[in-house]
Amino acid sequence: MTDPRTRHHPGPYAHPQARDRIRAAFAEAGVTGRLHAVDIDSGAQIDAGADRPVVTASVHKLCLLVALHQQAEAGRLVLTEQTECPRDGRTAGPTGLAAMLDAARVSLRDAAYLMVAVSDNTAADLLLERVGLDAVNDTTRRLGLTRTHATRTFREFLATIREDAGNGGPRALADPQVVARLRAVDPARTNRSTSRDMTRLLGAIWRDEACTPEPTPRRPEGPDCDAGPTTRAYDAGPAASSRASSAAATCRRSCGPVLIPSAPTVFRSSATRTQAASTMAAPV
């Protein structure tokens, strides 16, 4: 595994007019946006607020995924190790173990698959119980992601939304004043990163710098995936190649490779926040 921090040499920037067009698109959609895209081969890049901190929400599951595989590589855990998921007390969510009714027993690698394939919050917190937030932050620090940091589990992240919304419940999130006080939309008070850090993470995964590749890894599949380098971090399945999340119906962030036939591989990471709290927008 090579040191990804040695690969962070910025390439040429796109023409300023391209950046202006991106900012105009954000403005036309009625959102504030942050974006970074980089060509994996040439290093050519374009950004719009790429170094501004943003809330990561489920995008931070990519950091946890890499930390899990690094822990396995270091011999601190075994990916086939079984973990218990009790019937009660699960982290809320509409997919995977979070949506199931009965107790379950899964391996760590299967929990990782659920975490990235269907953004399973329960699976993510099962892994965090085994890996720990400190290990996730150690991983991002070693990868040179200096503006990426996790302070909460996914259960704790969701709990802050409920607490900050108050007695009004989900309906309160239609009030811009309520949304403005949510810790879940303030990168200074929750899990955070930048668009540039996320493209660096994706590049390290793609180049097999984040983890040592397995001899026969499971390749990502789906409309946005194609043959190419892969790593143990990608072993968890197709959604590792494109991670998107939203929080409090007012923010949207996503990151992943853009694979175009007969063209270079481009990594892009973006985050948007609507000006109206009751509306969600995700310009790409």
TrEMBL record:
Q: Where is the composition biased (Basic and acidic residues)?
A: 210-222
Mind listing the GO molecular function terms for this protein? aminopeptidase activity
Q: Which UniProt keywords apply?
A: Aminopeptidase, Hydrolase, Protease
* Secretion signal, residue range per the UniProt entry: none
Membrane as a keyword of this entry, yes or no, is: no
Q: Where is this region: Disordered?
A: 210-241
Question: Is Methyltransferase found in the keyword set?
Answer: no
Q: What protein name applies here?
A: Class A beta-lactamase-related serine hydrolase
